[in-house]
Amino acid sequence: MNKILKCIFIIFIVIIGLLYLCLNVNGLSETFKKHETLERLQPYSIPFITINGPLTQAELQKLEYPIIFKPSNYTGQGYGVNLIKNIGEATTYLDKAIYPIIIQRYFKGNEATINYQKNPITQNIEIHVVERYKTNKNQLWNINSETMNKIYRPEWNTPQLKQKIIDITRRLPDVSICRYDLMYTDLKSFLNGDDINIIEVNFFEGADNRQNYNFPKYKIVYIYLRWLFMRIWYSLLKIISLQGLTLDEFTHNLVKYGSNASADPGRNSYMFKKSILKNN
Q1: What is the tens place of the pLDDT at every residue in 267-277?
Q2: How far is 204 from 209, CA to CA, in rounded Å?
């Protein structure tokens, strides 16, 4: 019996240790809901509202379609992110939704991702820019990325763009590794650090996607494993340099990450921003 209890205790300690390593790397930012992150990044985030319950038909008629509906909780693999084309689709989505829900303007531009990595001790920062381009420009965005190819663009890593991403990330406390999903309209302006329109920021779900569509599978696996190693390594560096989460902060992250609690009641609900309404 003592051996069994000892094994259970060891397994429990290992699990808690692994959870700490996972949740420690980005501090309290790791468990922000999507809308909490986007609020901190305004005016760089694409205009959105957060709702805690269904909208009336009158309110749905005010929206400019197509428009993006998505959960504020991080679900992984884009689960629950839908391009809504009309009031009927909006009603169906909201009837089945788990709230809070983000309603975000559909940005008609070009898509890219930026992987951000900051060494907690040396403070050295790297960014890696990946272009996502449509195989058919006339096609609307697709959740399964069937219309998208990815191309790693190291030549897009300009000093101006890097500095802008550094400045934006300062709004997110203690972040060491994340991925920005964003849009832009003009490449020259984007590379100059302007024309940045953030869809969302991914933390634990934001794997390094420095891959071309024609990369062999072993190279893609290597990139993913390297990203996982860097998360663990940076988390360890934070612990060594006494920058890690306190017990209270870890407990807060653990509870929040595992919960499906809604946003503050009524916060942002039904407060429509002009930029997501018709004729704006």
Answers
A1: 334 444 555 65
A2: 13
